[in-house]
Amino acid sequence: MMRTVVRILLSSVVAVSVCAALAGPALAESITSAISAVRSKNAQLAAGAWNLDAERALVERLDTVADQFHDLAASGTTLTTTARSLIGLMERIRARYTDVLDEIQAEIIRIDGDLEAAQDSERWQQNELLSMRVLYRLNWIRYESAMRFESDTAKRKRLLDQSARGFEEFMGSDNVSLTVEVLLGHGLATKAMRRYETAIADFSAALEVAKDPAMITRLRIGLVEVYLSTKRGADALTETARLMATKPKGEARAQALFLRSKALLLALDRQGEGATRKKYISECALHLEELYGRGAYWEQKVVQLVDAGTVSPDEWAQMSRSEFVSWLVADSLRRRDECDRAIDLYSALIDSKRFRAEALYGSGSCAFYRGRYADALSFLGSYLEENAEGQHAEQAIYLRFKGSESLYVAAADDARDLAETRYIDHLKAYLDAAPDHAQAFEAWFRLGDWHREKGSYIECAEAFTNVKPETMLSLKASYLAAQCYVEAVLAVPEEDEAPVELVRTAIVALDEFLSAARGPDDTAPSDVTMSLRAKATVMAASIVTKAGAGSMQDRLQRLATFEKDFGKAGELLPEVLSLRIVAHRALNDLDAAGQQLERLLSLDGAEAYRRGSLKKLGIVFLKEAALRDERGDSAAARRSRTVALRVYERLLEDTQTDSTETDEPLVGLQNLVDDLRAQLSAPNP
User: Fold this and answer.
1) In whole angstroms, how large is the CA radius of gyration of the chain?
2) For 485-494, what is each residue's pLDDT tens digit?
3) Distance between CA atoms of residues 98 and 128, nearest Å
4) Residues 6+ apart with CB under 8 A from 308
5) Type and span of the H or E element at 461
6) Is the Cα torsion angle 352, 355, 357, 361 positive or negative in sign?
7) I need a labelling partner for 69 at 20 to 30 A (CA). Which of 134, 165, 640, 666 fits?
8) Coil, helix or strand at residue 274
9) What's the start-to-end Cα distance of the chain, in Å?
10) Cβ neighbours around 32 below 10 Å, total
11) Is the model more confident about 486 or about 15?
């Protein structure tokens, strides 16, 4: 049986716990540093002589930290690590006080065995008071940590069990306020552990003696939650009626509205037709409407209750006769892909002052997902005209863009220009209004494609650059952005040299793509990625010498390991060899140029180069031979003519398969080949 001194100290605990809800963060430093300060002070006191005033000050500081913890937890701050640290600290402080009690008890028993005298001693009372204060706060910290922050099931159960057993140490007090708080805490902990009968007994016992209205509300909420969890519909109805009768305020009223609505829906699940059913539905509709206006969290809860489907959409609309319920049900039907039924409800709300915006958006969304894109554009356009900053504005403008895109793709030739203009207008409007929308990357990609088709290569590159790195299209967009810069370089007329900054920008874009496309060393690139990398490598090599941005040596360096890196990219090898031939020729390495030419001519896939590219190469080496003759380097001139002869012999061979003996191109090629053979057969001067 608890002694008088314990009853007194428990009264002190009540004073602490009741004030906790009113206390704000009393420490200027963060809760982490506050915990650290209390930990240091505790270590200091543990190492010194007993000092009652210092110990009381320590516990008061601990109370303040606990208050700060509860305030931060209630605000939504994640405190997983902090919670564990605070619990550990409180357990150590309490253990220090209980160790002293054990020492006192052992000493008394050793001397005269009078345990009651020990409990009457001043030092015993001081330590027990402090120990019980710490334990009381620790119980609530453990409970809140378990409910808010602990994801490990075993650890969560252990915290709840420790909290419940901790509250049990306060059972039996004749202090009513403390008894009520202890029963509340114990009931909440046992409810969380699904020990429902114990929780019901705790809440019910506390309600018999509780006087404070706010506490009565908390107890009834806990009791109703147990009844709902155990499907005790009749008890839930009775208790929620009592809860509503207390007229709770603020967040407590929101909880009461929600629980009353759940109780009514639970009863409806077992209620047949008749006046009672209609009464329950009407009452539930009123509560849901009020609850919906209490912020985003409760909006979501209302939606979940309606989506649960306890009441059919038709029954909601018929029995409540509320515009709010009609809209809520229409939205629920739309989310369940029952748009044909939803549209009828939306249509009735279009002329409603209160729900016109929601009805326009819902109708537009349903029309879009039913493939009625013209109707979707009409509804969504009206919604956006009236609600440019509305709740659904970003999604509406996205759906309008996608609807316009579908109409553009399907447009007949005579309507395509108009559909295209509308599509691009809506696409750009979407990107202007919602650049951070989840699907914005898709619009940037489409815009890049469109600019490329129009030959607007810089705008094309800029659009593809805006495709976010974390999206699935980002790598391809990076490649296309670089390609657009390359096309901008190549679009410059031959008589006008491309700006060197444009060439460098294109090369940087290609290199950035190549770096991103390599990926982690342990990840094998896909065939598509390998193909794009090969193309990017060739593009970079082809433009690196333009406008003095790089040298022919740079080109050769970029292509040095092409065959090793891209063995499957054989279709690009002829172009790679051609680029090398020109580079070697420019670097006066005609032997290397000739070797690459032999490889080019031996490729089965070189047909594409045998007319255009080979003609260019032949001219290059004929000019080179003439230049060497002018310089008096007959040996180099002979090597150039040898290469040129090989080129024109292959051109002649290819032309003979497609021409008659009298064709002028064939005759000209034959004469050129004969002339080169004659020059090369003559002795060197």
Assistant:
1) 42
2) 999 999 998 7
3) 7
4) 265
5) helix 457-465
6) negative
7) 165
8) coil
9) 129
10) 13
11) 486
Residues 305, 265 contacting (CB under 8 angstroms): yes
The whole-angstrom separation of Cα 442 and Cα 655 is 48
Lookup: tokens for 634:
């007959």
pTM: 0.65
Q: Who's near 620: CB < 8 A, 6+ residues apart?
A: 582, 585
Q: Which of 53, 54, 34 is nearest to 45 (CA)?
A: 54
Contact criterion met (CB below 8 Å) for 237 and 202: no
Residue 649 to residue 665: CA distance in whole angstroms = 13
Question: Of 47, 75, 41, which Cα lies nearest the Cα of 61?
Answer: 41
**Nearest CA-CA partner of 442 in 419, 464, 409:** 464
Structure token pair of residue 374:
């013209």
**Which residue's structure tokens are 């030419």?**
597
The whole-number average pLDDT for the span 136-147 is 94
Per the CB < 8 A criterion, the answer to whether 98 and 131 are in contact is: yes
Total residues belonging to the chain: 685
Up-side HSE of residue 140: CA atoms within 13 Å toward CB?
24
- SS3 per-residue string spanning 64-107: HHHHHHHHHHHCCCCCHHHHHHHHHHHHHHHHHHHHHHHHHHHH
Helix axes 176-192, 213-229, angle to 10 degrees: 20
Q: Residue 424 has which token pair?
A: 């691009």
Helix or strand run (H / E) with residue 108: helix 80-111
> Which tokens belong to 271?
């209620």
* Backbone dihedral region for residue 113 (phi beyond 0: left; psi -120 to 50: alpha; all else: beta): left
* Contact predicate 159/43, CB 8 Å: no
Burial label for 682, CB within 10 Å (0-12, 13-18, 19+), is exposed
Q: Which of 120-124, 208-212, 464-468, 586-590 has the lowest mean pLDDT?
A: 120-124
519 with 533: CB under 8 angstroms?
no
Sign of CA dihedral 552, 553, 556, 557: negative
pLDDT digits (tens, 9 = 90+) for 357-385: 999 999 999 999 999 999 999 999 999 99
Return the structure tokens found at 417: 């220009």
- Alpha-carbon torsion (183, 185, 187, 190), positive or negative: negative
